[in-house]
Specification:
The chain is 45% helix and 23% strand. With 158 residues, it is α/β, with parallel strands linked by helices. The chain has a single domain (2-42, 49-152), classed as SPOUT methyltransferase, trefoil knot domain (Alpha/beta knot, 3-Layer(aba) Sandwich), CATH 3.40.1280.10. The chain has a five-stranded parallel beta sheet with strand order 2-1-4-3-5. Strand 3 (71-81), helix 3 (84-96) and strand 4 (101-106) form a beta-alpha-beta unit. The longest helix has 20 residues, at 133-152.
Length: 158
């Protein structure tokens, strides 16, 4: 069974987001082993300088790279836009190529370090629009679930 690992900075705070995440985790359990690791972002002052932000991203990046396994997908706004079908094909092809783990990385509110983006096998953007950071994780769960539904030929994906 394929392993999907999600490394994400921050916790889902609102109950409705935790409930949505739990529902997709339950649904995904039929198709993969899902592991989500919530990491604590580096604390910055409200008016952090660019230098402080860069240092925080570097520290967070080092933590992420220590935990990354398998085919790595960095979630970032400047990443590639893909259809649900294309993401499904990518997840499937990774499994077929012999890599049993796909790791999705969601950075902190300031994003991801350049090193994490360079080391990723794929940089993926959900949209050029901006979404609340916590909602992005639920949206990612849904797209991963949709990917498996596409692979199985389900009517879920229309």
């Amino acid at each position: 069974m394929q392993t999907i690992q999600i490394l994400a900075y921050g916790r889902l705070k609102e109950k409705y987001l935790r409930d949505a995440a739990a529902e997709y985790q339950k649904r995904l359990s039929r198709y993969c082993t899902l592991k989500c690791t919530e990491l604590e972002p580096v604390q910055l002052s409200e008016k952090a300088s660019e230098k402080e932000i860069a240092a925080a991203l570097e520290k967070e990046g080092q933590q992420l790279l220590k935990r990354t396994k398998g085919f790595t997908i960095a979630m970032c706004i400047e990443g590639k836009l893909m259809s649900s079908e294309s993401l499904s094909e990518k997840i499937c092809s990774v499994g077929v190529s012999g890599d049993s783990t796909v790791t999705f990385i969601i950075g902190s509110s300031y994003g991801l370090s350049d090193e994490v983006k360079r080391r990723a096998d794929l940089r993926l953007s959900m949209s050029p629009m901006t979404f609340p950071h916590q909602l992005a994780r639920v949206m990612l769960y849904e797209q991963i679930y949709r990917s498996y539904q596409i692979q199985s030929g389900s009517k879920y994906h229309k």
